[in-house]
UniProtKB/TrEMBL annotation:
<keyword id="KW-0812">Transmembrane</keyword>
<dbReference type="Pfam" id="PF07811">
    <property type="entry name" value="TadE"/>
</dbReference>
<keyword id="KW-0472">Membrane</keyword>
<keyword id="KW-1133">Transmembrane helix</keyword>
<protein>
    <submittedName>
        <fullName>TadE/TadG family type IV pilus assembly protein</fullName>
    </submittedName>
</protein>
<feature type="transmembrane region" description="Helical">
    <location>
        <begin position="21"/>
        <end position="46"/>
    </location>
</feature>
<dbReference type="InterPro" id="IPR012495">
    <property type="entry name" value="TadE-like_dom"/>
</dbReference>
<feature type="domain" description="TadE-like">
    <location>
        <begin position="21"/>
        <end position="63"/>
    </location>
</feature>
């Protein structure tokens, strides 16, 4: 009878604790997935922010380059200065180009975005265009 009672207690413990060891396996599988998903989310936010910063820099360069008697190099310098102040470390290997024609100005920003994902290579390209300001001579 004692053997039967011991067997019953053992069976009850096995039924009650049937998930022993599985939580470790689940953690080994789930934790890396959660970390990778978090890194992807952070990278997406960084790309979104970098795009907005690059667009703002292009608009700042446009504001300067389209001014009366301004030059395209002044627009490029303004764009570069904006990026130096706002996103010095996040946007690397960046170029700001301004093309001032007789009617319109086009400012383009190209930059590589800092990556939190291993082996990630992300870049942003933004541009802004607008008319050249002209002096009407009053009348």
């Amino acid at each position: 009878m004692a053997a039967l009672s011991a067997l019953h207690r053992r069976w009850a413990r096995v039924v009650r604790d049937r998930e022993d060891g599985f939580t470790t396996v689940e953690a080994v599988v789930v934790i890396p997935v959660v970390i990778i998903m978090s890194m992807i989310s952070v990278q997406y936010v960084m790309l979104w922010h970098a795009r907005n910063v690059a667009e703002a820099a292009a608009r700042d360069g446009l504001r300067v380059a389209r001014g009366y008697q301004a030059t395209s190099s002044q627009g490029s310098a303004s764009c570069t200065h904006y990026l130096d102040l706002v996103a010095n470390k996040m946007l690397g290997d960046r170029t700001c180009t301004a093309d001032r024609g007789t009617q319109t100005v086009l400012v383009t920003v190209h930059a590589k975005v800092m990556s939190v994902i291993p082996f990630g290579d992300f870049a942003v390209d933004q541009s802004a265009t607008g008319p050249v300001e002209v002096f009407n001579g009053g009348g």
